[in-house]
Amino acid sequence: MTIKFELLKKSKESQARLGRLYTSHGEIETPIFMPVGTQATVKTMSPRELKEIGSQIILSNTYHLYLRPGHELVKEAGGLHSFMNWNLPILTDSGGFQVFSLAKLREINDNGVTFRSHIDGSKHVFTPEKSMEIQMALGSDIAMAFDECAPYPCSYEETRKAMERTTRWAERCLEFHNHPYQVVFGIIQGGTYKDLRIQSSKELSSLDFPGYGIGGLSVGEPKSLMYEILDEMMPYVPDNKPRYLMGVGSPDCLVEGVLRGIDMFDCVLPTRIARNGTVMTSRGKLVIRNAQYARDFSPIDPECDCYACKNFSRAYIRHLLKADEVLGIRLTTIHNLSYLINLMKDIREAIKNDRLIDFTKNFYEKYNS
Amino acid sequence: MTIKFELLKKSKESQARLGRLYTSHGEIETPIFMPVGTQATVKTMSPRELKEIGSQIILSNTYHLYLRPGHELVKEAGGLHSFMNWNLPILTDSGGFQVFSLAKLREINDNGVTFRSHIDGSKHVFTPEKSMEIQMALGSDIAMAFDECAPYPCSYEETRKAMERTTRWAERCLEFHNHPYQVVFGIIQGGTYKDLRIQSSKELSSLDFPGYGIGGLSVGEPKSLMYEILDEMMPYVPDNKPRYLMGVGSPDCLVEGVLRGIDMFDCVLPTRIARNGTVMTSRGKLVIRNAQYARDFSPIDPECDCYACKNFSRAYIRHLLKADEVLGIRLTTIHNLSYLINLMKDIREAIKNDRLIDFTKNFYEKYNS
Q1: Chain B residue with Cα closest to A314
Q2: What is the pTM of this model?
């Protein structure tokens, strides 16, 4: 299977692009931010709220759904869209990153990864074929190839080995994958080594995936280093395919990623910090749990028109968070996701009007104020 | 202040009544169930969801809001309606029940109750006047008189003392209360002693409150005893005023209460059991966390048209609950509240059509099936 990706416009000022990706559950406008629904739910949100804030696609996690409730059960329910009642596009990751970051007692060899569940300690094996099998059962629109993600920091030799294995696994994924509408994106690895990133980009490009994830960034390295790596590698990532920077979701990184030619992003950051009482605003982050907001009857972000900002004050939301009331983290989550989705909408508008550089300047001025 | 209560119909078959209560934030149709928003939020629900399921009035808690965020802060926010963005009627309890059931190290005398906060152990005093002051600051539509609620079981002598003190405190509440639109309901006590219940009903009636709460029932005594007490006392509770059976919310008790002439109910039961994964259905309770529902792709209650039942399966909701996902308890809460609100709607319809006895028979047949 392949997927139609229309490149609507290339920015004259930067590497930014405007695109449209066609999936069997609808189109998405790129550049785009994808909310993460790890366990078949974007934490605290209902599907209709996700639609209301303009989510066009969500991500879900192969590793988590395989362990609980099990991909066979999801398949029995008619697939993930039906199980969770989300009829717009879904992207599933490969489980690769999670077995390396969450699971216990991993053993890696060329065949795959043996690991123990973080839930009950039970033993499991993920191979490229198994990852494809699970993702086909889930029935997402976009599956990701099973990859080995090197940590940060990591030696050149180790990073090279993981990168080369990722290429071999990518071939096996393509070989095994067979689904009426689901497509598989390859994942480029290579850690923070520019030559490895370029080698991986070239190797994966030659496999002609319908889209490319860039994995193994935003795993602890400084932002400036991530930007440098992107600068070096992006010329080698096919520009007629969607390019997805995995696990990146802070507002400044979204802007910088788009400037470097990224089309898709995902991250748990907006939902995770929301649950800790931190909100993203046009003037930067704000820890709404802080005492200074106890009697602040203004909205989280006066420039935002989400349900939280239109109807509730910082003081009320702070009260809910302090009192451990679920509505508190619901409202901060609605707001943070709305903020990123609106940011991407503004970015798309700026690309359209050839004013992304100007937009970026204004963004930073306010964001750092 | 008084309140307009229109008695639309008295059932020919039982003591049930159909009524309409006019508050400054809108009318409510009785008999009615009031969802409980202890800390200025009905747990897990947003105000618009509450409206969507047909909540006409909610209850909130004086004790909790006094401790956190503080009634003065709520007053600064423009009152509780404004603070929590709920523009329909609100009833606040007096804090009496909570200081006896939640707070620590209580000392009671005729002046009031000294207690320690369950949150931080700080020392506080509630008097009838203080309870009125807090409720006036909150600006609810209906305030409750400060009462002493005897536990169950409790000796006759102790129950009598608490009941007599409740009458003296009720007088002080009326004396002190002064608010442009808020009204105060008296609370009848007397534990499980019929003569004390009758005495309390008579004493409170003579104070001419615009409505009456029946407190101190559903505190551990058998349901049959509660029904007996109601049978004995209701002839002494003014029938031209709304009658509110406090803290009662199991479906069968709602039906039995209405048959005995009750107009208003509140209880944390539907929201509390929802968070433990238990749902109320037309066929009785169902513990949706149980393994038997893992692959049950039918809705919680096929007869229900709430958002949870229209869009999600038992299997999905069970998965969410097992995975500690907030959406799980949101959906069970939406359903349980919808169930009780729809039950009351059906009851009102049955009273209107003089078929409440028939309705009750059908209700029990299915409920116990």
Answers
A1: B83
A2: 0.98
